[in-house]
Each structure stands twice: as structure tokens, then as C-alpha cells.
Design goal:
The complex is a heterodimer of chains A (389) and B (621).
Chain A lengths: L8 E4 L4 H12 L4 E5 L7 H12 L8 E5 L11 H10 L2 E4 L11 H10 L1 H10 L4 E5 L11 E2 L12 H20 L2 E7 L1 E3 L14 H20 L3 H5 L3 E2 L5 E9 L7 E3 H14 L4 E5 L7 H12 L1 E8 L10 H10 L3 H4 L4 E2 L2 H6 L10 H13 L8
Parallel strand pairs in A: 1-2, 1-4, 2-3, 4-5, 5-7, 6-14, 7-12, 8-11, 10-13
Antiparallel strand pairs in A: 9-10
Helix pairs in contact in A: 1-9, 4-6, 7-11
Chain B lengths: L13 H6 L18 H6 L6 H12 L7 H8 L6 H10 L4 H16 L11 H10 L4 E2 L2 H4 L17 E3 L4 H13 L4 E4 L14 E4 L6 E4 L4 E4 L5 H10 L2 E2 L9 H6 L8 H4 L6 E7 L5 E3 L22 E8 L1 E2 L5 E7 L2 H13 L5 E6 H8 L3 H14 L4 E7 L1 H9 L7 H9 L1 H4 L5 H7 L13 H9 L3 H5 L7 H7 L8 H7 L12 E9 L2 H17 L3 E10 L4 E9 L5 H25 L3 E2 L11 H5 L2
Parallel strand pairs in B: 2-4, 3-4
Antiparallel strand pairs in B: 1-2, 5-6, 6-10, 7-11, 8-9, 8-10, 12-14, 13-14, 13-16, 15-17, 15-18, 16-17
The chains are: A alpha/beta (389), B alpha+beta (621).
The complex binds NADP nicotinamide-adenine-dinucleotide phosphate and iron/sulfur cluster.
The site of NADP nicotinamide-adenine-dinucleotide phosphate has 25 residues of chain A, from helix 1 and strand 8.
Amino acid sequence: MSLQNKPTTALTGATGFLGSHLMASMLTTGYRIIALGRSNKEGTLKERIFKLMRWFGIEALDGQLELVEIDFLKPFLGLPESEYKELCAKTEQIIHCASDTSFSERKRENVFKSNVASLKGILDFAEDSKADFFHYISTAYVAGTGVTYCKEILSSAKSFTNVYEESKAAAENIISRFCQKSSIRLSIIRPSIVYGDSQTGRSLKFNALYFPIRSAQSIRDIYLNDLYNNGGIKAAKNGIYLDKDGYLFLPLKIYLPEEGYLNIIPVDYFVNATIKIIENCSQGGIYHLTNNLPTTMKIVAKYYEQLMKVRGVEIIYGLQPDNLLRNPAEELFDRFIEPYRPYLSDKRVFDRTNACLATDNLNPPEFTYEIFKKCIEYAISVNWGQSIL
Amino acid sequence: MQNNVNKPDNISTPYETARNCRHYAMCKIDFLGSGICDSGLEKHFVSFYPQGRMILYEALSENKISITEKCIEIADSCNLCGKCDYQCYFLNEMRPTKVMEALKDHVATYIKNGGKVKSAKEDRILTEIKKIVGENWATNDEAITITYSHDLSPISDPKIPDYVVMPNTKEEIASLVKLFNKNKITYTIRGNGQNLLGFAVNVGVIIDLNRIKTIEFDEKNWYVKIGPGVAAFDLQKQAQKRGYRINAGEPAALVCANIMCSGIMSTFSTTYGINADNFIDAEFIDKDGSLFILNDPSSPNLYSYKNLEHKNSPGICVSASIRLHPVIDDERGILVPFQTLTNAVDFIRDCAIRHIGLALGIVGAEYISTFLSPTKKSASEIKNIFVDKLDIPYLVVVIGDKYAIRTISEMGYPFFDQRLFNALYMGLPSLKSAQWMDLIKELSDDEPYSYLRLKSFADLLETALSPSPALYSQEVDPELRPFFEKLFYKPEMTDLVWLNMYRIMSTRLGRKKPFLPVLIYLPIDNALINELNNKFRLIAEKFNIDNDFGFITPIDNGKRCIFEYDYFFDHNDPEELRRIRLAATEANTLVDEYSVKTGTVKGHPYVLYQGFCRKENLLYS
Ligand SMILES: NC(=O)c1ccc[n+]([C@@H]2O[C@H](COP(=O)([O-])OP(=O)(O)OC[C@H]3O[C@@H](n4cnc5c(N)ncnc54)[C@H](OP(=O)(O)O)[C@@H]3O)[C@@H](O)[C@H]2O)c1
Ligand code: SF4
């Protein structure tokens, strides 16, 4: 690999799931990257990024990767003025991938601080620097609730599933106005839900798709332990037993409001498509990185049963009857998946015209059992991220 | 906040075990229902209890004393029954019987080798003392006197008294005081040696009050009159048998001694009060050896707050009439988790002002993990689980009737009820390997501890942890496992109400290392509490002392609270003793500064010998 004649890119969110995959891939294809980030209790920015590089198995060339500790909420991104000026002079394009991805209403203040209030810092930086292209990693769900066909245009939605979507929609609008005013080209990249690498199963983060699986696996393990080590008294009380063929029968009725899809894309597709968009579209635009062949929870449930040797999972479309008696496993599972429920049976369809054009019709793969198996086996092997870095 | 936590106690030899005795006197009460050392019950001197034998063996190993007649009697009177192993292991993870064996061996070898047995010379004073208390109850044998050379204080140096005397009546005490006055002999009163400031050790005479254990109930007047040798645990037991409760301090502390020092306080002080709230009357022998009764109008007014110095102690408390409180049959305990101290303080203040609950106390993760864990190793693992996985750095213990508990539920606080507590406690070993714990934390993203609201959470927790006395006991020394397994089948051992009433678990706090509590009274004011909490921590860090938040209990209808911050130290490490002394001095100076600055903060040294004063005089003057 050699350093290519590619624009020096300031990247935020490089310690996160998508940002790190993007960084790794861009470094391998010869980009100069300036990662703007922060330290946390796990380590300094440098330590964190170096751990990630080891996980990706890559090394940066001399001068290819620069790390800058920043604070979006402070003037000059919290840097001494001279350092800030130096940074501005070097930066040729910006990818803003940092975001608070929490869905929790309790965290509204923080989510808005990270996703909206912090924009001033990064946009001022865009204006002060010699960057003439700003790429914003958004989400397909800025479309909001109540729409069925989502176009690749700015969202005017008024209602959202959660505070995260709401803040991302607000951010898109602010960034778009700013870039227009300052004549900075803008691309807005909107992935749906991202899971691990479809080729290797590797992933850094295990939420969204993984969370229901992990929850179901935990519940399964609790009862397996009861059956193997404690005579299965509790299991029996809840109609849970081991079949003759070694499958665990664990009744788990999952109610989803209506028939719909789970729109997921693998991270390798996200990375490849994003790089293509960045490189191909000189004028910018809005791009849906979504799946035209979305899967369903019924399919995922089947995959889960097959992989985990479990029976009894039932996906029921429709409202859960009032006063329905739930067994402990169902009650816990309901609570576990609550934040993700709206994405599990989604009726929205995403326009992909711009994305197809910009990526030479690059499409995410259909979510097959092989991909599911690879991804979940990897997740289990790293204890759902507990023993990853 | 921990600096030297992992420095293990070396208790591999009998000598090291002896040196690590915490001197909490817990071997003098039957807190496990497994019995007390027979010789202690018969002879009463601390020397005949496991604690005394530990001190004696330590002194013999260091050649501090010679083999005396009493030394042989002390060694011989141990029948190696093993009761002290159960008690000491429960609290400190130590097994004293190996010290008892070593003591017997030491004495036997000495005699076999023709060693001379020293007999203590009886002098005139001892003869006079014996005339008052009888031949068996006074001695100057150094095998006995050495065992009275310690108390709990890291500040004071050990001192060996010249005589130890154990009177049996207040009349005997009066005569002794007169004798000592006449002969200008210093005397010091001793309960179970739990003084934190070194006031239970001295040269001269130690008057050990442990023989005067009278307990007389006056049920129609809701009090119980006790002699000065009654321990809190024993009194609580008697009260409970009759359907009452007392406000009890540390279980092994003698009740009268406790009032004499800083007054009785516990989580029940939220409703039962502190200081003069706890008794109806008391009797004293004054400095001249005359009896006075507190409620007599001509007696010194101990209800006022005088900030007395030790030398001005009002005399010897020879009885107290302790208030009895009713017990309701639907009382139960819950644990309310909090992510921050601020939120926990808000909650207890709210409860105290609204008179919700009988007993309230905030405890930190250090407390709760130490109380629940059978070993030091397990405690440190459990602490991490509480803080990192369950996100519970603070818990509020509430004891209340069914209406109080229902109200807390209505207030919107999720909590661990008795059933969940049982599962957590007896399932502790499984908690460490529970994978689903990580999910539980994520589940709380939207609302902390919302999993506690799941109707079937208890069922799931029980399924996941498989709690049982057998599982819990897996963590203890294999030889003691059968005992512990049986012990934890006793319902009281996991009953939050019982555990709070008897406070036997709090002694486990000294298992890692002995501790020095910094105790203060102050308004329930979050800013002030957080400020002091931080400053106590900084002082400890400056001197490289292990430290942690202790507890907070609201008092006087939520207007004030008792706040404890703990400093841990190795009492066998002179360098650490030097540092804890410096830290303690600096903490006291800090409290003094705050007392002046705020006019509302009162520190422990100013509470000493104020146990009889009205709380209003103490708190608001
Ligand atoms: N993952 C998906 O399925 C998905 C789907 C659609 C869209 N997206 C979008 O893709 C982007 C990346 O998502 P992700 O899944 O990679 O998220 P992630 O793993 O949670 O990472 C978020 C990144 O943002 C950084 N960050 C958050 N708040 C910050 C702040 N206040 N200041 C500085 N840095 C901050 C984080 O830094 P620290 O590590 O220091 O906290 C981290 O590097 C986001 O914009 C998200 O909206 C993701
Ligand atoms: S082993 Fe000896 S010291 Fe311990 S309780 Fe039994 S008799 Fe007492």
C-alpha cells in the first residue's frame, strides 16, 4: 500500500462501530486520516485507536494517521489556536460520523448535546478549514414515523420513534443549511441498521440485530442451567423442557405491532458504499444505504432456533392482548427488546436512486442463514463484545 | 478509592492469626446461635474468651510476658470445641482454634522443659480489692492484665494495667471507687473494649463490668432496666423474645458503655432517635463513689450538652432503663438502589420528613459487598459487580411496615424486596459468572433498575442464580462448609429486618482491615455531604490510606443525619498506623473547620460522653 493522492480526511467517530470500520478501510486504500476524538475511561484516544488498529490487523504508514483530541463544544474544538489553524490548513474533507446513538429518552439532553449542539464546533471547523466537502453519516430513520416511502431528500418529519432519530433529523437540516450558506459540498449518507461483516462475521458492536438474539440466548442459558444443574424445577413450572433431540422448548411469543421488515445491511457494504459515494459524487446529495431485500423477524427467529437449538419462538403480528399472561422469559425478553421493537417490523420502504447511481449499483446481500450464523458465532466467540479489544 | 486493598493478611501461622484479631469482642456474644466459648462464660475475664487468648498468645510469642499461673489456667480451660472458628471465620475469615492449640502447646512445652511458672505477687491494694469483690474477681496476673491492653483505637498505644477487677454490683463499684480515690489509683472503666479513641485502656486498674448482666423488663412502662455488663445483642434478643425492639448499637458493645460514649445510634435512629431518646433513666456512681439517679432533680444535668473532656466524665453508669419499641408483624426490609449519592440522599430525606419507614440508611458498594460476601476475595469481586455491572454504587436500606413499603413503591422507586435479596445473597457465587448481567445494565438504559419492576424478575433471578445455603457456602473453607450451610438455612440469617436489628454483618467491615470511622452529625444537605465526602477521600488519598463512604442515616425527622466515612488501616503496620493517625487528625481538623463555618456540623470527638444529652442540645447548640 502507498499513500494515494486522496484528500486528507478529518474523521469523527473513529472510535465507534462505523467510524472505525471506515477508518480501517480508508487507511488501507491510501487515505490520510486525521481522527478527531476523545479519551475515555478505557484509555486515551491514542490507546483506543491503536487497539482498534490491532483488531483490524492494520498498520498506518508514516504520517498517514494523525490523532487529535477535540471537544466539539469548545471554541477551536478545544485546541490551542495555533494547533487549530494547523489542523484547518491540513484538512481537505470531513466525515462526521460521531454521534450519540442512545435511544433513551432519559438521555435526551446528552443526545441533543452530542448530535445537535456540537455541530457548531464541527461546522465552524469546516468553514475555517480548507475542506470543501462535508460528509455526514446520518440514518435512514430520519424519515420519522407515519411514512411508508422514504425519499432521498431532507426530512420534514415531525414524529419519530425516539430521541436519536429526532436529533439526527434536526442535525441534517442544520448541516444542510450551513453548507449551503458556506458553499461547502455536502453528502448525507443514511444507513439503515448495520450488522457485522457479511464475509467474516466480525463486528465491533452488538446492538440492534444482535440484541434480541443475545437476550434470547441469555434466557435460554438461564433455563438450560436450571435443567442441567438444578433439576429443571423452574423450567418445568414455565413449560420449558428439553426435547428428545436435544432442542430446548422455550415458549417465547413475540408480539410485533404489524407485519413488516427488518432493514439491515452489513458493515462491509456500508464501508464500500460510503467510500464510493465519497469518491464518486462530486456534487453531494443524500444516499440511502438500505436493503432492497429486507429480512423479517420470522426469518430471524427461524435462524435463531436453528442455530441455538431452540423451539417455541413465535412471532405474532398484532397488538398484544391486554392482561395477557407472560411467562418470565417473555416478560424479560419484552423488556430487553423494547427500544428496538419499532425496527423489528418496519413498513417503510427506502428510495435508493442516488445510492445506486453513486455506488455503481452496489447492493447489500440478502440476510441468509450463513451470514446470520457467521455473525452470531463471532458475537458469541467474543462474548458479545465483552472480550473484544 | 482503595489503595492497598490487595495486600493480604498473612494469617498462615497461629502468631499471625493472633496478631490479626480485630478485638471486636464478637466472640463474647452468640450471634450465630452456635454457642459461646464455655470458659469465657464461666470466668468472665476477657482473657478466657478467644479474643483474650489471641492477645495472650501474641504476647507470649513476642516474649512480652512470662508463663504465669493464670496463663496455664487460660490455656487449659480451652477445650478446643471450635466454636470460635465459626464466629471468627464468619466475620474475619480467620480460624482462632489454631492459636488455641498453639497456646496449649507453648505452655505444655514450657512446662515439659522445666520452665518455672510465675505466680503473681498479691500486694496490699489487690488484697483490699479482693475484699470488695471476692477472691476470684480481681487479679494482677500479667496473663490477665495483658489481655486488657488493647481497644479498637489506632490512635492510642497499648497499655498494660496493674490490676483488673470484675465487680458484680453497683455497691461493689462504689466501694472500689472509694478505695482507688483513697489510694490515688487511676481507674478506667471497660465494657467490651470497643472505644475508638483509646479510652478503654490505661495503666492502674481496669474495672471490667461484664459480670453485671441484670435485665429487668417493665413492660407496662415500656422499658428494660439493665446492668452495665449487658451487650446490645443480648438485650435485643431478650427484647425480641417479648415482642419488643431496642435501638441497638454495635452488637458486642455494652449498652451502658455505648450510651456513656457517643450514645446509641443505628439505622433505627431515624425513628427511635439518638442519645437521650434511647433511655428513660440511669444510675451512676460518681467520682466520690456515691450513687446518683439521673432523673433526680438534684443530680448533675446530663441532658444538657457540655462538650465534656474525658477527665470530666460524669461517673460510672451502673444501670440504664432502655426504651422498648413495639414491633409490627408485617415489618419487612427492602434495598433501594441509586446511581448517585445525591439521589440516595434526596430519597432518605424525603422518607424521613414524611415519616416513611422505621429504619433508613444509605450504604455504599463497599459496605454492601462486604456484608454479603463470605470472604474478602468474594467481597471485592462482588463490589465490582455492584458498581460496574449492576450500576449500584449506593443502596438505601429501608425497614418498614407494609404501608411504608407500599408507599415507596408508589413513589416510583424500584427496589430489591426480601425475596430478591435472598436470591442475590444466597446466589452470590453465581452472580460472578452471570453473563446476562451485562444485558441487565443495558436494560436500565431507559430507566435505572427498571428490571426490578418485572413481575417475574424474582423467578428469573432465582432460576439464574440457583440461590441456596449450599451454593453460598461453597465459597468458605471446606472444613467449615457443613456448619455454614446449616447456618444459612436459619431464616434470620437472610432476614433484612433481623440483620438490621442485630447488626452482626457490620463487623465484617473490618475483615479486610480494621477501620476508623469518621462520624459526624450534619444537615441532610447534598452539597455539604458531597463536599465532605470528597474531602475525607482526599485526606485519605494524601496519606495513602484505604477509604470509602460508610453510611448515612437520617435523624430527627430528616433535619439532620449521621454520616460515617471509613478509613482502613493495618494495625500491625507501624507505618500505616503513623499515616492513619495523621489522616485522623486532619479529618478532625476538617470537621472542626466545618463546625465553625456552618454552625451545623458536629464531629464525633464532641459527641463523646454526650450519650446522655438530649439530641436537641447536641444537634442544635
Ligand atoms: N450502527 C448502526 O447501525 C447505524 C445505523 C445508522 C446510522 N448510524 C450512524 O452512524 C454513525 C456511527 O454510528 P456507530 O454505530 O458507529 O456509533 P457508535 O459505535 O456509538 O460510535 C459513536 C462514535 O461517536 C463518538 N461520539 C459520540 N458522542 C460524541 C461527542 N459528544 N463528542 C465526540 N465524539 C462523540 C463516539 O466517541 P466515543 O467512543 O469517545 O464515545 C464514537 O466514536 C452515527 O452517526 C450513527 O447515527 C449507525
Ligand atoms: S476453641 Fe477454645 S477458645 Fe475457641 S471457643 Fe472453644 S474453648 Fe473457646
